[in-house]
């Protein structure tokens, strides 16, 4: 039988109520609509219960507004996200950040029952043309708004979902494309890595980019690698978690957290290429002299990659470094190509995720078993693997015909 909790005066406390031993103050714990633990405090029990009653009334008032169709889009989104109990914490944080950044302060303040198809259309064009976001980012916003409105439809707060068909019209009329990621060519990949290896400043980045291009890891998965995740005897890398930067409430700062991979399929093992093994061994030898990463994140330590401050690098720092290296390389390559009277091999604007895409493309060019590719990449859906495979094989098809034309002498 559960033991009844009492305060220091012997009064029975309700569920969620405690009296703190440190300062004798009363505290009530509850969960808000976003699933976050919240607390209210009081100097005496009567005051605490007044606050509890007010909290309950506020929550019921919010429900009344929702049922009456007077709730804002913000209220409905908060209600929607609170129902997503199976979302990973990193995914929920990303959804909330995106909504807060693009919707909450403007369009989100409208009453949900008053929002029409044309309102959504105008808002999307505002984001595209005034805020200059990409069509891909707009897709992300839409993927939050559409189920939010759909929840209101199912609750019979509104009759139709005003976001239905909006993205189809936007895609047809806006003249923008989604900016599909393209892999580096073999020449670009080789030039990028050779430039880093031979550069007096950037050479210390060679191991990290070798690992990214030799494993296809997401940047958070790579930064989260620990020495214990490597099996040198069996030449296997275990991917079982990732590093995520969560935005801190009420500030522009972020905090490092450990999260599970993007999907369950992300928990996997990756064979260790010789060049990747060399990169890890190089890092280990360096850190034996300079010191290992002593950062502890959510109880985990022993992280492989280390910045100059002795902590785990920020993914944005890695992306900024790629841009800086590519710009420097391109400037030098243009001059060198002119001296040698040849066309320069120019590096495009790319990010860490393009390196993952590049690895997957090289894998597709050399492996025909789609299930093997899907497993190594940690793709949840085979369609993602098929899209990259189709792009890779399209290039191979052209090369195949060029080889055929060179060998056939029958026309």
UniProtKB/TrEMBL annotation:
Matches recorded under PROSITE patterns: CB, TYR_RECOMBINASE
Domain of life: Bacteria
Matching InterPro entries: CB (IPR044068), DNA-bd_dom_sf (IPR016177), DNA_brk_join_enz (IPR011010), Integrase-like_cat_sf (IPR013762), Integrase_catalytic (IPR002104), Integrase_recombinase_N (IPR010998), Integrase_Tn916-type_DNA-bd_N (IPR004191), Tyrosine_recombinase_XerCD (IPR050090)
SUPFAM superfamilies named in the record: DNA breaking-rejoining enzymes, DNA-binding domain
A Pfam cross-reference name: Phage_integrase
Annotated keywords: DNA recombination, DNA-binding
Domain Tyr recombinase: 179-402
Domain Core-binding (CB), chain residue ranges per copy: 71-153
Protein family (similarity comment): Belongs to the 'phage' integrase family.
Annotated protein name in UniProt: Integrase
Organism: Claveliimonas bilis
Lineage: Bacteria, Bacillati, Bacillota, Clostridia, Lachnospirales
């Amino acid at each position: 039988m559960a033991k009844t909790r009492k305060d220091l005066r012997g009064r029975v406390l309700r569920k969620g109520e405690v009296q703190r031993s440190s300062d004798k103050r009363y505290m009530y714990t509850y969960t808000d609509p976003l699933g976050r633990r919240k607390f209210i405090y009081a100097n005496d029990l009567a005051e605490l219960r007044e606050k509890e009653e007010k909290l309950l009334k506020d929550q019921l008032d919010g429900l009344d507004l929702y049922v009456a169709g007077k709730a804002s889009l913000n209220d409905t989104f908060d209600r929607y996200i609170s129902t997503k109990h199976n979302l990973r914490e990193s995914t929920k944080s990303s959804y909330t950040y995106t909504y807060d950044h693009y919707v909450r302060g403007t369009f989100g303040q409208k009453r949900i029952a008053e929002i029409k198809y044309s309102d959504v259309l105008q808002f999307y064009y505002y984001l595209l043309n005034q805020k200059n976001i990409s069509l891909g980012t707009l897709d992300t916003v839409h993927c939050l708004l559409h189920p939010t409105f759909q929840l209101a439809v199912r609750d019979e707060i509104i009759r139709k979902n005003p976001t239905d068909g909006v993205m189809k019209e936007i895609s047809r009329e806006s003249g923008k494309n989604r900016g599909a990621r393209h892999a580096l060519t073999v020449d670009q990949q080789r030039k990028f890595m050779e430039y880093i290896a031979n550069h007096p400043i950037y050479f210390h980045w060679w191991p990290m980019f070798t690992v990214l291009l030799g494993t296809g890891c997401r940047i958070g998965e790579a930064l989260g690698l620990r020495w214990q995740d490597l099996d040198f005897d069996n030449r296997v890398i275990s991917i079982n978690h990732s590093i995520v930067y969560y935005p801190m409430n009420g500030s522009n700062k972020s905090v490092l957290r450990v999260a599970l991979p993007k999907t369950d399929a992300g928990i996997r093992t990756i064979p260790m290429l010789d060049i990747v093994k060399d990169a890890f061994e190089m890092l280990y030898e360096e850190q034996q002299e300079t010191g290992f990463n002593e950062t502890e994140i959510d109880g985990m330590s022993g992280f492989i990659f280390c910045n100059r401050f002795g902590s785990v690098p920020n993914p944005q720092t890695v992306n900024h470094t790629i841009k800086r290296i590519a710009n420097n390389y391109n400037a030098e390559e243009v001059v060198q190509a002119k001296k040698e009277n040849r066309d320069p091999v120019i590096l495009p604007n790319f990010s860490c995720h393009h390196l993952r895409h590049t690895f997957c493309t090289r894998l597709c060019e050399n492996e025909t078993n789609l299930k093997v590719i899907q497993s190594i990449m940690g793709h949840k859906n085979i369609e993602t693997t098929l899209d990259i495979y189709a792009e890779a094989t399209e290039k191979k098809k052209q090369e195949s015909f060029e080889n055929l034309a060179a060998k056939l002498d029958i026309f």
